[in-house]
Amino acid sequence: MDNFNEFGTTATSPNKETGAIISHAFEIFKNTFLYCLLAVVIYFLLSYLVQIITGFNSAIIMEQIKDSGGDVDYKEIIAAPGFVAYSGANFLVTLLLSPIFVSLIYIANKSNFKQQISATDIFFAYKQNFINIVLYAFITQILFTVLFLMCILPALFALPLFFLGYPILIFEKASAFDAIKKSFDIAKENYGTVLFTAFLAFLISIAGFLICCVGVYLTLPFAYIAMYSTYCAYCGAPRQIDNN
User: Fold this and answer.
1) 244 in a domain, yes or no?
2) Based on the structure, what is the number of domains in the chain?
3) For the segment 87-128, what is each residue's pLDDT rounded down to a tens digit?
């Protein structure tokens, strides 16, 4: 495959172990932190704009959940003013913004190759396999929403099967369905390691909520960097793509 690194590359690939992969991801995350932060800020600003347009106030809902001690009445949430419109609009916004987070994988690769990164790189995935990235995001969002509604465990155990999809899409220009298949095949053969890696990456990504809600701005993108490091571990560091 012509997209993988050749002899003499300055990029690094971690061993096929969870600890090595997470450490590799942390090192890249530190070097790309400002761009990760930019991606999250863009997402939350547009999400807040959707709230204003639809009239839905998530702060009130969060306060109700806090006051109830976590005893959530989903019927009341669904009946809240603007909730249905907000949910639909936010789902669409999330799909259209998915290439921004996928671009972090491209930025991670530039960092791994010690190349200069620019702010415009955050939009790279809009011109690199955009349709398949959005289609993949649509499929996985629907799937994980259904799994989470069933029970959190099915979603957790399915997580590693799709963990490598985005790197495959951006570096191999695969179709959404080919990316699902290849990600599934790699994870199936290395299920334990990929499961533990995906689970730790997910916990780190949501750690901002546990510390302080604002903290999610700092931690949310880590999962995408971990996807990149996992891809490097099992497929090798991909040759950098020209941004032109």
Assistant:
1) no
2) 1
3) 777 788 888 889 999 999 999 999 999 999 999 999 999 999
